[in-house]
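Protein in question kept underneath.
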Amino acid sequence: MIDRDRWNEVIAENSADTLENFCMLFPEPDAIPGDAPLVASMAVEFRGPLHGRFFVQAFGDVLAEATETLTVEETPDAAAYADVLGEITNVLCGNLLPEIFGTLAEFDITP
């Protein structure tokens, strides 16, 4: 398990890698303007050596870009956006937990 002081760094690195590989999005640190609107948020719950919730917030156009990449819908609706953000949240959490707790730790992730 990593030291708590490294969590933010690991979260940022893991999130960037996951978004690049899963959504073809290439985040840059501090790229979100301070006035970008919060578009949506999603959470998954995890249970294992530690219980908790993992939250993801989408600001600006990032959710629209991810939905465009991950679906074939020409005009996605709210359900498509929710599905994409849910999948991104699940993948991010699923990739992050082994980074923090090691590959031998087992977790259940639920929406």
Q: What stands out?
A: The mean pLDDT is 87. The longest strand covers residues 38-47. DSSP finds three helices and three strands in the chain.
